[in-house]
Amino acid sequence: MAAANIVTLSEANFPAEVLQSAQPVLVDFWAEWCGPCKMIAPVLDELAGEYAGKAKIGKVNVDDNQALAGQFRVTAIPTLLLFKNGQVIEQIVGMRSKRDLKSSLDKAAA
What we know:
By secondary structure, this protein is α/β, with parallel strands linked by helices. The chain has helices spanning 14-19, 35-50, 66-71, 98-109, and strands at 6-9, 25-30, 56-61, 79-84, 87-93.
């Protein structure tokens, strides 16, 4: 499902891939049945390519990883959490433009 530069996240790899990442990580909490999640997916695929080496994009399927969704209080999807140094620095709920997401990534990667 995920594109080449997108990391599929689970409870098992979340600490290493996100919390201990040297790069900022934009985590997409999504589900198969979520329409807006499907709409934002191509934008995230493009960003993953453009930010390769500067920031990571990861996806958490909330149906498969309910504990992670609960841990980060994800109540609506898509929810995008931007992590830097293991901390959430921004929370984005719902569909956003590529420009908005780029602006957030640029600030985090600076």
